Structures are given as C-alpha cells and as structure tokens.
Hints:
Chain A is mainly α.
Amino acid sequence: MIERLFEIERLADGDSPVHRLDARVKIMVCFGAVVALVALPRGDALFPVALAFGILLALFLAISRIRLLAFAARVLAILPFGLSILVFQVLFPASPVHDPTVVVHLLPGLAVTAEALEVAVQLGVRFLLCLGFVILLSSTTRVQDLLTGARRLGLPSEFTLILGMMTRYLFVFGQMFVRISNALATRCFDPLDRALPYGYRLRETGYTLGTMFIRSYEQGERTYQAMLCRGYGKDAYLLVPRKPLLAAEWVVLGGCMAVVVGAPISALLLA
Amino acid sequence: MHLIETKHLSYSYRDGVRALDDVSFVAPRNVKIAVIGPNGAGKSTLFRHLNGILLAREGQVLVRGEPVTRRNLREVRKFVGVVFQNPDDQIFAPTVEQDVAFGPTNLGLDEATVMHRVDEALGLLGIEHLRARPPHHLSGGEKKRVAIAGVLAMEPGVLVMDEPTAGLDPRGRDDLIGFVNELSRGFGMTVVLSTHELDLVTEFADYVYVMDRGAVLAQGTPGEVFEQEEMLRRARLDLPVLSKLCRSLREQGADLPVSYTFDEVERNLAVALHLRREP
Lengths: 271, 279
C-alpha cells in the first residue's frame, strides 16, 4: 500500500504549466471549488454550476497532461467511501419528505423514493467534483510545495513544521518498508504463500509490523535528539521565503476564481 | 555455464536515472569477486538483479544458465543469497535463532533440518552465544553476522554481499574476510561483494569489476585492475595504499616489483631493504 506513495510523488513531479503553477493558486482554486460545491443549496442551480466546474477541471487535466487512467484509478480508490454514503442516503434519507413518491419497495418500511434519489444524485455530483479537484491538486503539486504554499497562505508555522516532518518521515518509512519487503522476498517469504502454515505467516507478518514500529520509535528518538542538537525548541519553524505571484499566475487565479465564485452566484440568481 | 551471468543488462529508475548501462557480469564457480565503484555506481542495483528483486527489462540475467523470471524466483533466491548493506533491514524476528531459522522455514524444511541449518550457520559465524538474544541488543558487527547467518542458513550456491564491511571495526573486517576465504576454500562457494575498501580487495578477491555511472569500466584480476591508475582516478577511486607505496618507491628508483597483497609487499620490501635474501 505504502509503495503507492512513490507513485503519487512521481505523478506530482511531472512537468506541465499546471505543475509549474504556484501552489498557492492551485490550493485557492481547489478549496474555492470545494467550498462553493458544498455551500450551494440543493436545487436545479447545481447542474449548470457542476457543468462549469467540470469544464474547468477538464481544462486543467488536459493542460496538466496527467494520464486519464492514472487519474481515474485514484478516483476509483476513494469512490467506495462516497458510494456507501450515497447508498445510505437513498435507503435512509436524512430529511424525510412529507409525501414521498415511492419508486421501489424493498422491505416493509424500507423504500427508495424519487426525492431521496434526487438528493443522492446531487450529493454524488458534488462528491465527484470535489474529489476531482482534490486529486488534481495532489497529482500536480509536490507535497513539499503544498506545504510551502499553505504556509505562504497563512498556515501557522507550527503546523507547517509538524506536517513537514510528517511527510519527510512518511517517505523514510515508505523506503524502509520497501527495503524490509525486499529482505523478506530474498529469504523466500510471501505472506500469501499457501504452502506455509497460516499461523506461521500471521506470526512472521506480525514480527515485521512490530519491527517497523520499534524502528520508527527509535528513528523518532534519534531524530528528536539530533533536532535538539541543532537548537530545536518551541519557537522553531521551517524557513519559507517570501515569493510574490507572477503576473500570469494572478491572471490564472483571477480567471479561475471568477468561475468558482461567479458560476454559483449567477446560477442562483437566474434560478 | 556460469553460476550467474548478466548479458547487456541495463536498468533505469522511474525518475530517468540510468542505474545500469549495458552491464555484462559473470560469476563462475568457486570464485571470489569484488565489485568496486564510487557511491551511485550501480553496484546495489546490479546485486538486486542477481536474485530477482529487480527483473531485467533490458538485457538478461541468467542463473545457472536460465533467465530469471517470475516463475523461477523461488529457485533463484534459494540459490543466490543476498545480504543487504544495512542488517537492520534484514533482521526482524524477536531472537537471533528465530531470525536465522526464518529463511529455511520458508523453504518448507522440517523442524529438525531447520534447527540443524541454524546450528551450522551460527557455528560458521561463531555466534552461537547470541542465539537467544533479541537483535536490538546486538552491536553493529554482531548484527552483520546474524544477517549473514540468516542467508547462509538457506545454503545458497552464491553469496552476494552489499558492502559487508561498512561500519565494521578493523577486527570485524578481518574476521569477515577470513570467513569469506573460508567459504570459498571449505565449501567451494562463489562470493560476490561490493566495497569501497580497496586494501581489502587485494586481500581476498580473485576477480574485480570496476563500475562507474552504471557501466563496467574495467575488469580483471586485482593486478590487472590496479595497474590502470588513470581509470581508477576517473572512477573516483584510488590505488590500495600498499600498491601506491610500491609505485612511489619504484618511481624514486627503488628496485621493487609491483605487488598488491600484504604478504607480497612485505616480502619484496624485506628483500629490497636487505632484511631477507631473494626468494
């Protein structure tokens, strides 16, 4: 699972105008879109807004030259979470209607209504678009850039430092995991090998996880001591130098925010 | 048929770094091979191909004449034992004994055979007394031995070690070299190891490969390789100290044949200094 980390990093490390765009612009557009999609009241106004956002997303995807398959794979990986919420929404609507139009009777007291389906469709559209924007952001921005971008946008330096260390060690442990699995493979251990007794496989896998745990604990201690040696204290922070946005980046930001803010407002006014 | 052979093996990492470039490498029976080269020369990447951790994409890796594929990985790993540079990557069971037993158990051997192999491997490395100890209480040198024992217990035909002397004290280093020589002499095993310590190469290697930037720059007996001073310098390597001394004295007019191992140099120097007669 953790090897996927390096795959995401590789995607984000690509080169395209979207990859090169300042992280602040991408963070603001992404969050703007998510907030707009969540805040938009339920009703017909959603669909034109969704169309506009969909076009914006498609445009970014096309320019970023991310392979659609890789993008779809990442959407698919998260989809089950959203789908389970939708299923619950259809079977047990959050806001029951006074006189519902029943589409299918499943069990006594359990029915699918047209109203619940409509709410589910609206929820599904919002979910997919939000997901699309977040995955676009993470596929075109390296974690390090996300962090400096967030700091420049005003994320407190304590968070930046902690998140920064977290990402650094996520990769350290990712590599540790890969090395340990190589060492296990070298001695012919495969946790899915049915020729070995089940209990044995379970125990050895347990040892592996335990070793990872002890090692991460020890690594944490070593790093903390090394940090203290370099004067780490409560006022420590990661240095993020100031960097003004380029004129072109202001233009992109302005254009995108016009869509992100303008589309929902005009849709609501017209409706 | 060689035990291990790579033919025009090339490998690029996903970020485009060319780690191996047309490497043809041969490990015959009962030979001690040293692979030397600066950091990032591709030694570890080559070693990872030898037991199928990485599968050849360009070129071929043959083990006992057969290409390494997903199908025969198990056989290949049984035959080619790889010891990693950092023993902590490899040792993970709660006690030394359990860790050494790990490999043979995975081969599906019965308990008596596994215990027999554990005894043999621990005895070979002289670490029977560490049997019941948890790995995190061991010193660096002890961990190294446990890691090697864990691979030897699988009774491989070829032992591949990635920088086995890194982090060892001088005594540990000498013990290791003695042990490698013993493996070759007593068991006819082929040993391949990578190192930065050139003094060590002259002491144990029958054959040397010099790698730089993914390619094999030179190969031959230690004598043949260490003659090529210019090539070594290009690969950010140096001559072994003793060879450097011999060369320097020769340039200053001393009547001293070029030699590489400690015993040879000592003998030749003793003769040159008239402490001993011509052999």
